[in-house]
Amino acid sequence: MTHGTNSLTTTVDEVRPGDLFCAVVAHETEQWRVVAVLGIRVLAERVSGGDRRSFTLRFVRHQLSPDVLIARGAAATASPDSRR
Q1: Which of 78, 83, 77, 39 minimizes the C-alpha distance to 58?
Q2: Nearest Cα to 44, choosing from 72, 10, 18?
Q3: Beta bridge partners of 28
Q4: Single pTM value for the model
Q5: What span, in angstroms and rounded, lies between the C-alpha atoms of 21 and 67?
Q6: 66-77 and 57-64 are packed helices; what angle lies between their axes, rounded to 10 degrees?
Q7: b/e string for 38-47 if b means 16 or more Cβ within 10 A?
Q8: d(Cα 52, Cα 78) in Å, to the nearest integer?
Q9: 17: Cβ contacts below 8 Å, ≥ 6 apart
Q10: What domains are defined for the chain?
């Protein structure tokens, strides 16, 4: 976490309403949108529907981290031959 920043500076650990992340719920990967950050919990709404669910802030921070986003992007662009 970045210390000594003002409210206009975005930190890596910051989670804001409107941020999108992926989570596996009921054996399916779904995209979720942050609705509110409530202490150590995050209220999120499923992008494909109106379902809402609570996630831990730590989990959402991890899902929004650059390492996860880079790994997800690399997996999506990998050719079928490279997975063998």
Answers
A1: 39
A2: 18
A3: 25
A4: 0.67
A5: 13
A6: 50
A7: eeeebebeee
A8: 32
A9: 34, 35, 36, 37
A10: 1-74 (2.30.30.140)
| Beta-sheet pairing, 41-46 with 52-56 | antiparallel
- Tell me the average pLDDT of the chain: 79
How many C-alpha atoms does 33 have within 13 Å on its Cβ side? 10
Q: Is 52 within 8 Å of 45 (Cβ atoms)?
A: yes
pLDDT of residue 3: 39
- Written as six digits, the tokens of 79 are 């050719």
Instruction: Please name every residue paired with 34 in a beta bridge, in sequence order, or none if there are none.
Output: 44
Q: Which two tokens stand for residue 64?
A: 């929004």
Strand bridging mode 20-25 / 52-56: unpaired
Beta strands in the chain (DSSP E): 20-25, 28-38, 41-46, 52-56
Which pair of structure tokens corresponds to residue 69? 């986003």
